[in-house]
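Changelog note: in this version the structure field was regenerated for every chain. One regenerated record is shown below for reference.
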Amino acid sequence: MTEELSTQHYARPTWDEYFMEVCRAVAKRATCDRGRVGSVIARDKHILVTGYAGAPKGMPHCDEIGHQMKTVTHEDGHQSQHCMRTAHAEQNAIVQAANLGISIEGATCYCRMTPCAACAKMLINGGIKRVVCEKRYHTGSETEDMFRQVGVELDYFEDKIENYANQ
C-alpha cells in the first residue's frame, strides 16, 4: 500500500473527539475509583487547562483510605450515593485556571459525564459557553435545566447514563 493511499483512509478526529480523548487521558490521574473523571477546558482549538477528580492537596485520596460516602435525598424522593472526599474534575480545572490567571470565558468544557449542579454553577459563572460530555450522569437533569436557562450549549457523545457501583 502506498503512503498516499493509507493517508486517504485515515480519519482525522474532530476537535471534539480530540479534546475528549485528552479528557480520557487526564481522567487516568483521578484518585477516586468510583468514577475516574477528567476535564479539559479549551478555546479556539487550544487546551487552556485540565483537571481530574481527587482529594484537595495534602489530603489523603480515596485510593489510599477509601471513600467518604454521603446519601443524598432528591426532591422526588429518590436517593443516590456520592463520594465527598474528592474535588470534581471540573472544579479542579477551574481552580487551575484561576491559579494560572487563565480566563475560561467563552471556552468549552469537556468532561466524562454531565457536571453536577455545583460544577455547573461554577462553569456558568466562569463564562463557559459549551459543555461536551461523553455520557449523561444519573442526577444530571438539574444541570441540563440550568444550562438551558442561561444558554450554555450541552452536547453528548453518547445518549447513555454513566453507571458505576453504589450510585
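Spot check on this record: The longest strand covers residues 46-52. The beta strands are 38-43, 46-52, 69-73, 79-83, 108-113, 130-135, 153-156.
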